[in-house]
């Protein structure tokens, strides 16, 4: 069963992700090296024994491999795929999470911020549901990286998903987290190669400059 919660009609991308869910999910099998590099970064940041939720869980690729048992997403088609991977799913939006305040150790937001109707509201909700000293982890494709510029070009050409995205810089994400009283403690990155170069396996790097996939971890110090 897929549970629904507070899904509002203003959400702009749910219909698109419903339509392209299976095409979206095949990206991981078509880009195994890139996906593996990204997973390595997130693995370094997520505590395996913690209670976490992935906000914008999509098809559950990350959650199912990280033992993140809970996921929220507005796309019912995505949630069916995630559920098939063993993720407990709820249909809903990140700006209105059906989770008790201060009840989780971690909120994970992987390439979801760029599709949010209200990014600040999403971060505020993520902060609300984690415990004091809990973490909010935001992973993005930076707009000023080679990958970000590539996806922006794809969006301008009418790509069915990227055309709905708004990309951010690492600095903008840091400012957004700080505005919600979250303290940035770590940044890890991968994809030092560009979209037109042969992919190669990489270890996560604390040097986030010019990387195509960056995760920012912030701690909730109050509440």
Q: Would you kindly provide a written description of the structure presented here, covering whatever features stand out?
A:
- The protein has 223 residues and is an alpha/beta fold.
- It is built from eight helices and eight strands, in the order βαααβαβαββαβααββ.
- It has an eight-stranded mixed β-sheet with strand order 1-4-3-2-5-6-8-7, sandwiched between helices.
- The longest helix has 14 residues.
- It starts with a strand and ends with a strand.
- The relative contact order is 0.17.
- The N terminus is likely disordered.
Task: Give short descriptive properties of this protein.
single chain, 223 residues, alpha/beta, Rossmann fold, 8-stranded mixed beta sheet, 8 strands, globular
Q: How many domain modules?
A: 1
> In order across it, which strands form the biggest sheet?
1-4-3-2-5-6-8-7
- Taking the alpha carbons of the first and last residues, their distance comes to 33 Å
* Strands, total number: 8
As a percent range, the share of helical residues equals 25-40%
Give the C-level CATH assignment: Alpha Beta
**What's the SSE pattern?**
EHHHEHEHEEHEHHEE
CATH topology: Rossmann fold
What fraction of residues sit in β-strands? 15-25%
Rg result = 16 Å
Average of per-residue pLDDT values: 92
Sketch the major β-sheet. Answer: 8 strands, mixed
Poorly predicted tracts of residues: 3-10
Q: Which class of secondary structure composition applies to the elements? A: alpha/beta
Based on Cα principal axes, name the global outline: globular
CATH superfamily label: Vaccinia Virus protein VP39
CATH architecture classification name: 3-Layer(aba) Sandwich
| Number of discrete helical segments | 8
């Amino acid at each position: 069963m897929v549970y629904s919660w507070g899904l509002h009609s203003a959400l702009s991308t749910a219909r698109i992700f419903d339509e392209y869910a299976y095409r979206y999910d095949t990206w991981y099998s078509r880009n195994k090296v890139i996906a593996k590099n990204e997973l390595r970064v997130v693995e370094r940041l997520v505590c395996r024994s913690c209670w976490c939720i992935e906000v914008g869980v999509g098809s559950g690729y990350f959650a199912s491999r990280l033992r993140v048992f809970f996921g929220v997403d507005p796309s019912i088609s995505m949630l069916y795929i995630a559920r098939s991977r063993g993720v407990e799913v709820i249909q809903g939006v990140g700006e209105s999470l059906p989770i008790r305040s201060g009840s989780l150790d971690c909120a994970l937001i992987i390439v979801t911020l760029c599709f949010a109707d209200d990014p600040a509201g999403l971060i505020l909700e993520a902060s609300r549901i984690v415990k004091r000293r809990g973490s909010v982890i935001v992973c993005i494709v930076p707009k000023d990286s080679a990958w970000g510029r590539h996806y922006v070009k794809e969006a301008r050409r009418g790509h069915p998903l990227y055309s709905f995205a708004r990309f951010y810089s690492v600095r903008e994400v840091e400012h957004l987290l700080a505005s919600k009283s979250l303290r940035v403690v770590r940044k890890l990155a991968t994809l030092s190669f560009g979209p037109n170069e042969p992919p190669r396996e990489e270890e996560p790097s604390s040097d986030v400059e010019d990387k195509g996939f960056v995760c920012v971890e912030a701690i909730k110090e109050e509440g």
